[in-house]
Structure formats: structure tokens, C-alpha cells
Amino acid sequence: MGRIKPVVPQFVENQKSPMRASQFYIKTTREAPVDAETISHQYLARASFIQQIAAGIFSIMPLGQRSLEKIRKIIREEMNDAGGLEVTMPVVQPRSIWQESGRADTYIPPLAQFLDRREREMVLAPTHEETVSMMGRYGITSYRDMPLILYQIQTKFRDETRSRGGLLRVREFEMKDAYSFDVDDEGLDASYEAMAQAYHNIFSRCGLNAVMVEADSGSIGGKDSAEFVLLADSGEDTILICNSGDCEYAANLEKAEFIKNHNPSEEFDEVEKFATPGIKTIETLAEAEGVLTSKTAKAVFYTIGDKVYVVVIRGDYEVNETKVRNMMGGSEPRLSSPEEVAAAGFPAGSASAVGVPSEFVIADDSAIENVNLLAGANEDGYHLRNVNYGRDWNADHVGDIASAVEGHKCSRCTDGHLKQNRGIEVGHIFKLRNIYSDAMNVKFNDANGNLQSVLMGCYGIGTGRLLAAAVEANHDDRGMTLPRSIAPFEVVIVAVNMHNNEDVRDLAEALAEQLENAGIDTLLDDRDEAPGAKFADADLIGMPVRVVVSPRSIQNGGVEVKHRLTDPKDSTIHTADQALAVIQAALES
Predict the structure, then answer these.
(1) Is 305 exposed, middle or buried (0-12, 13-18, 19+ CB in 10 A)?
(2) Which CATH code fits 272-399?
């Protein structure tokens, strides 16, 4: 009996040649790097998407480059649809423009700096607010020049102290950063909302269900800001989300607010000093007095600049250092050393703000809205009962500096409580307003001929981090399960023994060309490898659809089609004429 000739799809003119695995660079491994903590780091390294060069510095390999190109394409399409204009700004910048903005010595982490051959101070840009402000200063002269949105996809460098998670936290990275220029707050709000919608579209198209949460502006500065966060156990950010179905409040730990209980109706009682030998903590003080820690005023010492401050908060709450930094104008607080506390004249375990000049006191509103609290007597082995704000102590700096935790009451609704989640930040948007335009003289003439400051916004997405987050959200125990929109290839055709079987070779090559001409990104795996190794590579890399062409599939009627998300044994046989329609349907599922 002669061999069965398969039905080969008809060729068309101007055929596209599919990518062949034998001519590509696929170097998968079974073992992940020993320092790979996250699943995305493990799989991206094993699948040869990335190669680590140094701590927090990676090369992008051909497979990773294909996925990143697709991410960049999605970003560009959405940014262009939102009215953005693409530019490119330099990575190496003169330090003088950072001095002009006031961030040369305050940016965290510190700027990476060097001297050029002419002994001029240069920096590696961690972000581009200064450079884009110079663009605005050059080109914007009138209100008619706005609104304007400029964006780029460019390399950044931040000398992070602790790189981790592969592409999740690196030192050198690629970012899409956009900047808006507007005449007034109404225009800035419109640009901000347009960028927020563009971000929702980008993440959705990349297969991510990202949550928009209120966030701190950090070293970028500005008024309002929001993060887009992928909820994932591997995330390093803490996110608080209201558990009420009717409330949409969500914020990161640095920003989250909550409702604090207080008892302002009580009358002030007389202060009583009493001995507390051996009591050094709020918990042991409350236990000794038979009260809750919420009836105590905790004093924590922070050094800001060269001054020691007493930070007062209710005993059942913890200090949020980011909120303290924002209250103090951006100066970074750090816990004072025992030596600094002693030099300031305070006994450890018995300190309070009583008798301290108000200019050196920072108070959470919980400590001033509650009355008759227990506090230190500023004398070793003694505490005070019935300490009250306004009578016994004062503070020049008062506000919300408490960290929210799971179970706290939501600040936006009446019946919700906060639930804690872990998350990966995949995007951040800011309303900068005039902080850079004032510092760098970005002005325009309004409709009345008056000189005004441009209002700015900035909007960032890390492309590599987005890819890593997509892996965190789309994987199983065999490898990545990337959505077709960002997978390096949509379909892999595994040709079994094609070099020794003319029927397999003809059908596999014809089908690959047919898929390419139908606009389906296809890899023909023609490598001289065992079928099992090819199948394992396809699963690890995350090819959405696998097609097997083998002597057995031909004997059974054609080609074997399997979706990546189905069981490894769950495949179907289809004739060559049916294959295109079946594969298209699988990609849409």
C-alpha cells in the first residue's frame, strides 16, 4: 500500500515566509536562576526571554523582544488615539537641568552621575520631567499651543538599592512616559482622564486586570496620582481595597486613609503622674492600666534633616513614614537612633510630647481627637494619665500620618472595611500641575495676554515590568500562558520528523505559510529535536495554540490542534483544509 498524501493548503501569491525555529534563537533551560524569586523571573529566564548581566540589569533576548515589540505597539496605538505625539529624549543629561528643577540632590534613589571628558557633570536619567519641561519651554508660548501630550518609549536608569523579581524591579529599564501640557485645571483633568482611559485599554489588551488605586506621588511630586496595580501574591506593594460592593475606593499603603474612632465628648481630667518601673512599651503600659492601647499616646522619634521630632500617634496605630514625608514638604524621615534620642533629652520608653516645643512635634489627628490618654512623663520609670492635646502638649504639624491596615473602616463609604492585598504596580499617573513649570519657567500667554504657568501631568508604564506582570497573571506549572496579543508567536507548528518525511515537511510548511498570509504570527518548529522537547518548549514559552504535524496526525486525517490552556492530552484532529478556521477559532477563544 502506498503512502497517504496529505491535502496541502493552496499557495497564494506574495506569500509570507514563516519564522523557522531552526533559524531563531531559542535556548530554553529546565532550571531557573538560583536567585529567581518570582514566577515571572523563573519563566522569562528559562524561556530565554531575558538574560541577567548584573544586579537589576538584563539583556532582552529575541523571544522577549518579540513580546515587548507587541506591547510597544499596543502602547503606541492607545497613546496616539489619545492624542499623544511621540518624541525621544536623551538618557544622558546635564546635571544642571536637575539643579534647575531642584531635584539634583533630593531624588530617591540618588542620581547616577559621572563627569564627561570636559569635566561636566552628567546624570543617567531616571525619569524625564526636566527634559520635557525644556521641550515645553522651547515650543509653548500661547494658550493656542495646548493641550499638548508628548510621549516616548525610552531607557531609564535608577540605582535601586534592592533589585528583585527579574523585570519587576530593575536598575536599567524601558518605560513609556508621557507628559501633558494644559492651560488650566479643567484641561489638566481632561488630559489625566484621557490617559487613565488609555491605560485601562493598554492593560486590558495585554491581558491584565489592573486596578486603579490612589497613590503617593513620591519623588516625582505633584498633587493627585494613581497607580494601576495587578493584584498578585508576588507583588511588593500593599493595596487596601474597600470590601463594599458599592464602593470603589482603593489605595496603596502609602496613601490609604481610614475612619478613626475617637471620644471627643469626654471632659479633660487632671493630669496624674504615676510610677511605671520596667514598663517600656505601649502594650505593657495599657495592660498594666487595664485599658486598650487606643487609650494611649505613642511617641516615636524621627530625624528629619538635622532635627529630632517627636511623632505622636494613638497607641493602636502605626506611623506611615510616607505621609510624614509629605507633611514635612518632602524631607525624608528616618527613625532616630538611641543616641539621637538620648542627646535630645528623652528617656526611652517614657517619652511624650508634653513640654516639647510645638515646632518639634508632629501629630496624627488620632492623638488630638482623643482625650485623657496615657503618655510618657519624660522621666525614666514614670508615665502620665489624662494627657490632652491643647492643654498639655501642642504640635505645629498635624494631620493623617497613620498606616491603614485590613479591617479599618473605609473613608469613602458608611459600611465598608478595608481588605489588604498584594499587588504589582504596572502604571502610574500624576497631576504635576505647576511644580516643574514654575521651577523651569514653562510659561504661556493666556487669552488676555497675561503670563501664566503651564499645568503639567506625567504618565508612566514600564514595558518590561508589564511583561513580567503579564506572566505573573498568566502561567501554570508548565510555563507561561500569555494572551495572543503579547505572546512572541500566536501559533507554533511542531513538525515531527520533517527532515525525513516529505509529507510532514510539505504540509507543515504549507500550513505555516497559509497562517502567515492570514495574518497569524506563526513559528514553524523545524528543529531536529525530540517531539517531547518541542512540546515542552511550546508550553514554557506560552504559545497560545500548538499545531502538530506528524506521520501519525497525517495518518489520522490531517493536523493536531491544541489550545495552550487546555489539558496536555486534549487535542483534536482536523484536515488541512479545516485547519485555518479551527486555529482562528482557537485563538479567539
Answers:
(1) exposed
(2) 3.90.960.10
What's the pLDDT score for residue 15? 59
Closest CA to 304 of 285, 275, 327: 327
The architecture CATH gives domain 19-37+488-588: 3-Layer(aba) Sandwich (3.40)
Amino acid symbol at 72: R
Q: Counting Cβ atoms within 10 Å, is residue 427 exposed (0-12), middle (13-18) or buried (19+)?
A: buried
Helix 502-517 vs helix 576-588: crossing angle, to nearest 10 = 50
Question: Measured between alpha carbons, how far is residue 246 from residues 177, 255, 282 in Å?
Answer: 33, 21, 37
Q: Which fold has domain 50-256+419-471?
A: BirA Bifunctional Protein; domain 2 (3.30.930)
Alpha helices in 94-244 (DSSP H): 95-101, 129-139, 185-205
Question: 264 pLDDT band (50/70/90 cuts)?
Answer: low
Assign 468 to helix, strand or coil: helix
How far, in whole angstroms, is CA 423 from its chain's centroid? 8
Q: Are 102 and 134 in contact (CB under 8 A)?
A: no
| The total number of residues written for the chain in this structure | 589
Could you report the per-residue pLDDT of 181-221, keeping only the tens digit for each?
Answer: 999 999 999 999 999 999 999 999 998 999 999 887 665 55
pLDDT mean across residues, the chain: 92
The 3-state secondary structure of 97-134 reads HHHHHCCCCCCCCCCEEEECCCCCEEEECCCCHHHHHH
Helix (H) or strand (E) segment spanning residue 531: helix 531-541
CA distance 498 to 34: 37
Every domain of the chain and the residues it spans: 19-37+488-588, 50-256+419-471, 272-399
Show the cell assigned to 95.
546635571
